[in-house]
Design brief:
single chain, alpha+beta, four-stranded antiparallel beta sheet, 26% strand, GCN5-like_dom, acyltransferase activity, transferring groups other than amino-acyl groups
Length: 291
């Protein structure tokens, strides 16, 4: 019989774990750091989604962490965020093998896995009699909060920037590339509980471009309406949300598909820097699925 090595993280330990433990490996830990911060924020505000955060309570200093985000809709995978300090890979492998907290029947998506943990995750999936598949390789782009807060930009006279509302969710979701693994509840929670900004037409109030701070605490759903591309609205809205996040003490970051050259160029143009090697997002599938 396996003994569970992980315990659910209480809010009382969150600040120490993030600021005194994870920050030792900054910005390598940025995804886990803001996933945890966003989880407790959403828990306090009764989000539609459910977070479970686990750590090794008797060895908190090694930074080992598993976070699981479950959504209310059927048919969508749990999102799993995994992290440990460099040098702890063997311990992490034992922990991943022993823990009973991951629901493998829900075919989880491991989000932005540190490359040094990729083989461990894939081996664990195989040991469960399942199949691993690369969803995409994420390029992490980030900016320090103080630098983001100093950004400046001008808003053209024919548009204005405003908060997104729940009335925009259906339209945004209909154009979202990742609606295959992210349900509409993600946008519902994001618009209500996090930062979500749009560029709107002064003429008729039409939504022309948008971006949000998503369920993992980083930027998501950055998009310009297909009819209004090439006018600088993507850069404008990215500058706006980046500055707001910086003013709130948040270091903005995004996980961008390495094949999305437009977004990668846009983040670079605004001043984001690329960090580390690509971070694979790994899907779990039944062994007989796909080619």
């Amino acid at each position: 019989m396996r003994s569970e090595v992980l315990e659910e993280m209480p809010e009382s330990i969150m600040e120490y774990f993030c600021e005194q433990v994870l920050k030792r490996d900054w910005p390598n830990c940025i995804h886990a750091y803001y996933f945890i911060k966003n989880a407790f924020q959403w828990k306090r505000k009764n989000s539609e989604s459910s977070y479970k955060l686990y750590y090794i309570s008797n060895d908190v200093e090694n930074g080992t962490f598993i976070g699981i985000l479950s959504r209310p809709e059927e048919g969508y995978p749990d999102l799993v965020v995994a992290y440990t300090f460099p040098g702890n890979e063997e311990q992490f492998q034992r922990m991943l093998f022993r823990t009973e907290y991951i629901n493998w029947q829900k075919k989880p998506l491991f989000q932005a896995v540190p490359l040094r943990l990729k083989a461990i995750v894939e081996t664990m999936i195989e040991e469960k009699g399942l199949k691993s598949k690369l969803y995409f390789n994420a390029v992490l782009k980030w900016m320090p909060a103080d630098e983001a807060a100093r950004l400046d930009y001008e808003i053209p006279e024919d548009v204005f920037i405003d908060q997104l509302s729940v009335d925009h969710i259906d339209f945004i979701y209909s154009l979202w590339t990742h609606s295959d693994v992210y349900p509409k509840s993600d946008l519902w929670d994001t618009v209500r509980l996090n930062i979500g900004l749009g560029v709107f037409s002064q003429l008729n109030g039409k939504l022309l471009a948008w971006v949000m701070c998503g369920s993992y605490g980083g930027l998501s759903t950055l998009m310009v309406h297909p009819d209004y591309r090439g006018r600088g609205f993507g850069k404008l809205i990215l500058l706006a949300v980046t500055k707001v996040m910086g003013e709130n003490g948040v270091s903005p970051y995004g996980l961008i598909n390495e094949k999305n050259k437009v977004s990668l160029g846009l983040f670079k143009n605004v001043g984001y820097v690329k960090h580390s090697t690509p971070l694979p997002c790994i899907e779990v599938e039944d062994p007989d699925s796909g080619p």
